[in-house]
Amino acid sequence: MVNRPTDIHSFDSNVWIYRFMVDPEANDAEDSRKHRIAAELTSRGNIALSIQIINEVCAVLLRKANFTESQVRQLVEEFYSGCDVLNIGRHTVKQASELRERYRFSYWDSL
Predict the structure, then answer these.
(1) Are 110 and 99 in contact (CB under 8 A)?
(2) What is this structure's pTM?
(3) Which residues of 20-57 are buried (b: 16+ CB within 10 A; e: fewer)?
(4) From CA 50, how far away is CA 45, in angstroms rounded?
(5) Cβ-proximal residues to 39 (8 Å cutoff; 6+ apart), any chain
(6) Is pLDDT at 30 greater than 70 in this prediction?
(7) Which of 32, 41, 48, 109 is at a distance of 20 to 30 A from 89, taking alpha carbons?
C-alpha cells in the first residue's frame, strides 16, 4: 500500500465570503448556488489558510455584511480552531515575488 499525504484544501477569500455573506434563502439562484458550493467546499476539513485570508474575509464581512465585532471575533476563533492558519514570513513573501515575476500574478494572489 502506498502512503499518500492527506489532501490539504485552501480557498480564496471569495469562497469564504460566499459561505458567510450570501443568504441561502435569497431568490437569486446564482448566489444561492455559490453559497451552497462554498459551504460544501469549506466543510471538507484539512483546510489551510493564511492570516491574509482571515483579514480579507473579516474586513468584507464587517463592511458589506454588517457583521459585529463580536461576530468577527467568533469567526476568527473558528478559523483558528478548525483550520491550519499559516503565518506569512520572509520566505513566503520572497516566493510570492518569484511567482509574480514568473506568472504575472497579482501581489495578493501570489501570497
Answers:
(1) yes
(2) 0.76
(3) bbbeeeeeeeeeeebbeebeeebeeeebebbeebbebb
(4) 15
(5) 19, 24
(6) yes
(7) 41
